[in-house]
């Protein structure tokens, strides 16, 4: 567990998993609306097993929800400017880490999918992976992206839907930024094995695409 104090005076925390061999490319991992729970820590460990310096950041101030009502409440309470500052701090920390190659990617799911994109706008990264996250940003915002973007979306998702993703793709085009979007015949949160919407086949396919994408852009 690592802690830091931001310029704003806020204390922030993150969970680091080390790969067997270093220096290694780094990945900043952003949790769902539940917070930095054991499921996210398990994914972080898996990224370390894959050879990455893996850091799960906490945008909920240490809170972990177990009910949808609590998760929704803590998500709504997130201060956007503070979360931007937190995400940018950890991206820069990972880029400068003495065990890092200096290459950094972001990966997030649901709430964290949106923040994977936001983090990449707040601080330049080499690769951004979005799992069914809120992607409502302007072309002007997206012009600040430095690396490639991969998105995983679900056809049955009522929230992160075709309209939202279509507008995002149009804004990316307007910013002259490439994006690779993949659609799955599944529902929101299909990649979370601890949730009701888990779809093992689609989760495995999305993971293989994520792994290939990160290997290509962080090597």
Give the helix level as a range of percent: 25-40%
Termini distance?
A: 26 Å
Spatial order of strands in the largest sheet: 1-2-4-3-5-6-7-8
> SSE string, helix = H, strand = E?
EEEHEHHEHEHEHEH
Number of strands: 8
Structural class: alpha/beta
Sheet-strand content, in percent, reads 15-25%
Multimeric organization: single chain
Q: State the low-pLDDT regions, or none.
A: none
Mean pLDDT: 96
Q: What would you report as the Rg, rounded to the nearest angstrom?
A: 16 Å
**CA-based shape:** globular
- Biggest sheet architecture: 8 strands, mixed
Layout of secondary structure:
Elements: E1 2-5, E2 11-17, E3 24-30, H1 38-49, E4 53-57, H2 68-76, H3 80-95, E5 100-109, H4 111-122, E6 127-131, H5 139-142, E7 148-154, H6 162-174, E8 179-184, H7 200-218
Parallel strand pairs: 3-4, 3-5, 5-6, 6-7, 7-8
Antiparallel strand pairs: 1-2, 2-4
Helix pairs in contact: 3-4
Structural features, described:
- This protein has 219 residues and is an alpha/beta fold.
- Strand 5 (100-109), helix 4 and strand 6 (127-131) form a beta-alpha-beta unit.
- The chain is built from 7 helices and 8 strands; from the N terminus they run E-E-E-H-E-H-H-E-H-E-H-E-H-E-H.
- It has an 8-stranded mixed sheet, sandwiched between helices.
Features:
219 residues, eight-stranded mixed sheet, 7 helices, 23% strand, globular
Quick structural overview:
This protein has about 220 residues and is an alpha/beta fold. It contains seven helices and eight strands, in the order E-E-E-H-E-H-H-E-H-E-H-E-H-E-H.
């Amino acid at each position: 567990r690592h802690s830091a104090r931001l310029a704003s005076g806020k204390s922030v925390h993150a969970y680091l998993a080390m790969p067997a061999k270093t220096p290694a490319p780094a990945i900043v991992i952003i949790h769902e609306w539940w917070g930095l729970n054991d499921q996210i820590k398990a994914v972080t460990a898996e990224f370390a097993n894959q050879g990455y310096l893996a850091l799960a950041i906490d945008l909920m101030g240490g809170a972990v929800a177990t009910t949808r009502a609590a998760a929704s409440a803590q998500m709504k309470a997130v201060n956007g400017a503070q979360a931007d500052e937190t995400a940018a701090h950890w991206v820069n920390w990972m880029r400068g880490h003495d065990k890092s190659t200096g290459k950094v990617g972001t990966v997030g799911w649901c709430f964290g999918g949106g923040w994977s994109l936001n983090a990449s706008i707040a601080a330049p990264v080499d690769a951004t992976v979005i799992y069914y996250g809120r992607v409502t940003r302007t072309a002007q915002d997206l012009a600040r992206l430095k690396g490639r973007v991969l998105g995983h979306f679900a056809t049955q998702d009522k929230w992160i839907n075709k309209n939202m993703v279509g507008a995002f793709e149009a804004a990316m085009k307007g910013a002259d930024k490439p994006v690779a979007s993949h659609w799955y015949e599944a529902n929101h949160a299909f990649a979370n094995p601890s949730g009701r919407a888990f779809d093992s086949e689609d989760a495995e396919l999305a993971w293989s695409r994520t792994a290939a994408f990160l290997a290509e852009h962080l090597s």
